[in-house]
Design a protein that fits this description.
The chain is an all-beta fold. The protein is about 0% helix and about 25% strand. It is built from no helices and 4 strands. A two-stranded antiparallel ribbon has the order 1-4. Bound molecules: FE2/S2 (inorganic) cluster (2 copies).
Length: about 80
């Protein structure tokens, strides 16, 4: 299993829709951040499914170091 790549130093704000599912890129290699585009293929890392229960703006982690996947928990500003 390879370490995730830091895709961004800040989170991605996304307007999610209630009832929809989203696949968060956990490996950091997707060109369609913060979502999976299949680029994780040889990394041993798999995307994480996020089920939106509300229509609202959420912040998906871009640095891939969050402890609260797939959401940003502020870890991007630590070291
Ligand atoms: Fe990163 Fe799929 S491309 S998890
Ligand atoms: Fe990863 Fe904030 S962007 S913790």
């Amino acid at each position: 299993m390879t370490e995730p790549v830091r895709a961004s130093n800040t989170p991605y704000a996304v307007d999610v829709e209630a009832g929809k599912s989203y696949w968060w890129c956990a490996c950091g290699k997707s060109a369609k951040q913060p979502f999976c585009d299949g680029a994780h293929k040889d990394t041993g890392i798999t995307p994480l499914k996020y089920d939106a229960t509300e229509t609202k703006k959420v912040y998906f982690c871009g640095c891939k170091a969050t402890a609260k996947q797939p959401m940003c928990d502020g870890s991007h500003s630590k070291g």
